[in-house]
Amino acid sequence: MQMTFRWYGEGNDSITLAKIRQIPGVKGVVWALHDVPVGEVWSVQRIGEVVNQAKKYGLNTDVVESVNVHEDIKLGLSSRDRYIEAYKETLKNLSEFGIKVVCYNFMPVFDWLRTDLFKEMEDGSTALFFDAEKVHALTPEQVVKNMEENSNNFTLPGWEPERLKDLQTLFNQYKSITEAHLLDNLTYFLEEVCPTAERYGIQLAIHPDDPPFSIFGLPRIVKNKNDIQAILNAVNSPSNGLTFCSGSLGANPNNDLIDILKSFISRIPFAHIRNVKHFEDGSFIESSHRNEDGSLPITGIVNTLFEHDFKGYARPDHGRHIWDEVCRPGYGLYDRALGAMYLQGAWDANVSLRKGIFENISVQNT
Q1: Which of 70, 207, 289, 321 is flagged as catalytic?
Q2: Any catalytic annotation for residue 331?
Q3: Which terminal residue of the chain has fewer beta carbons within 10 Å of its beta carbon, N or C?
């Protein structure tokens, strides 16, 4: 398991590369060109700038999150081919710098959704919170306004104002799009881009829906094990993979995370590991990574990765906001650094256990 840390770039993140390099075990940053509008080609020059920035601190840039998919592709509009060609060109340009994994999502309109970006917890820390009752009382426009006004003046990927300036038009376009239509449009996209990704040695890894159920009537197609199986079956390519995100899939208590992980481990090049705490009404809050603080089997997930000799990339996902840190919602330094250490501690425990077993066998055989 190769530990990484998400970084939003110079001038766009409260956390510097100098700080990230001090987290034990973190070998690389997960990055993107957040200033490039969705659908435009990422230039070799701009990619090289970020790669070289990270290299100065001994950090790799093997994983990109995300090269976003233009809405016209998701909608299956006639203009999608132009954006697909731009996507292929971006993959080609990324390959020049040895990029191994590109995480992307296929969520309509909103990439993710929370009702509270800084919900106070019992210990005084704050965290991302999804209030199931509140979300049903809000309009899409109110949700967008809430996100803009409570983001601590940081950009929020998936909530770009220029992309969401005409919400009503977007929602009208999706009125006739069913989950079956959306899967067809994803399949078309993958059939086009996977050969390019294969040619350049890049694995595409789709991110689950966050949360993994319909919001405002929009279709969702990466919600559970059956959905994932359908996507992986749709295009038979080693470049058609999954980003295993425990927090997204785990927001639905009915999803068996260990079973999903075991079922698709050979198609998972990248894992997001975070914990969430469920409430009876369907709400959830993002807790610390520690098993006892949430509802998900975090050490069980790490154990399963270890058992299957996972050599892919992982990162501590969203963390709480602690010790008065001013940061992008969900992406502070301190709690994610604690998360990275917790995950690596669970991995090291497996290493020690295996070593101990081998030592016992050796002693018994002498």
Answers
A1: 207
A2: yes
A3: C
Per DSSP bridges, beta strands 126-130 and 284-286 are antiparallel
pLDDT tens-digit profile of 103-113?
999 999 988 99
Question: Is residue 275 within 8 Å of residue 289, measured between CB atoms?
Answer: yes
pLDDT tens string 303-327:
999 999 999 999 999 999 999 999 9
The angle subtended at Cα 332 by Cα 203 and Cα 56, nearest 5°, is 60
**What's the chain's length in residues?**
366
- Of 83, 313, 331, 342, the catalytic one is 331
User: Given a cut of 80, is residue 365 above it in pLDDT?
Assistant: no
Q: Catalytic site residue 324?
A: no
Which of these ranges, 3-12, 234-243, 256-265, 351-360, has the smallest mean pLDDT?
351-360
Return the half-sphere exposure (C-beta side, CA atoms, 13 A cut-off) of residue 307. Answer: 10
Of 348, 339, 344, 332, nearest to 19 (Cα)? 332
Closest residue by Cα to residue 221 from 182, 184, 194, 188: 182
Contacts of 285 (CB under 8 A, 6+ apart): 119, 121, 127, 128, 129, 130, 276, 277, 279
pLDDT score for 361: 55
Q: Could you tell me the end-to-end alpha-carbon distance of the chain, in angstroms, rounded to an integer? A: 33
Q: What angle do CA 15, 16, 22 make, to 5 degrees?
A: 100
Active site residue 308: no
- Catalytic residue check, 57: no
Pick the catalytic residue from 272, 313, 321, 335. Answer: 272
